[in-house]
């Protein structure tokens, strides 16, 4: 798939335009968005992301459109897991709700920059070293097992304690920091001295946290497509709607009790797919004498269906489980009240 500079320019212009709309229309005047506002914008971004796949279909073909949709759904589902961490970070820094949009949007911009760099590096490595798919696949299988174990250990609660990363600790150590937020400013000048504020610290925390997210999400999407344009487009559209999605499902994340298992299934599948692809393209002398191995490899259509079914089962099972837990809690509460009245 040959992608012209015009296509890259059009995609870049669209991404930048959407970011400008977010900055000017939502972040410039700090406010906590209503559920209606966040829901409508989330649906708009989802609709835009899906529509972009039809553009790829129209200008190229259905195979690449399916690769894009599979990649976008995968990145979007991984973003749900990222939101758990964002909730923890914003809570730990006690970010006022009206400033949270700005933190998330700047964090998303940093994420787009980091991921674009990772994609360029990934493309160069893949073109030169086919055996890297063995490493990508093994890493995703390890990540899948880790996701499943996290689901078992957390019991579906997704609660963890935030610990500041190296970049945030260095910022605190090097620069003087104000005791609290100074409106939504990142820098504050006082008595001839410049201070950084918790606003800048939380932005650093959110932005650098995505570096860790990209470590598994970038290999995952390269398991579905090797076209840089599609890889970046899928990442961009999954991140652009993340700010609105945060305010839609904030407080409802704990209801996705089986999210870890769903992500484990998706990452495990892509990990196996990468290993199979590596075997098919094998040139390592200690594997089959350096010869290719004719193995079955999941098609783009099969991959898309598997990802959609896995995510759907995860969400439906989580909703049913959470509803039953609520019913049990209500029932227990009523029984306790009745026992108290009898006494």
Mind explaining what this structure looks like?
- The chain is mostly helical and 343 residues long.
- The protein has one domain (5-342).
- The protein is 73% helix and 2% strand.
- It has a two-stranded antiparallel ribbon with strand order 1-2.
- A hairpin with a 2-residue loop joins β1 (187-190) and β2 (193-196).
- It is globular and about 70 Å long.
- The N and C termini lie far apart (76 Å).
- The model has no long low-confidence stretch (mean pLDDT 84).
Attribute tags:
two-stranded antiparallel ribbon; 343 residues; mainly alpha; 73% helix
Mean pLDDT metric: 84
Helix-residue proportion: over 70%
Q: Extract low-pLDDT stretches.
A: none
Number of helices: 11
Number of structural units classed as domains:
1
Using only C-alpha atoms, the radius of gyration works out to: 22 Å
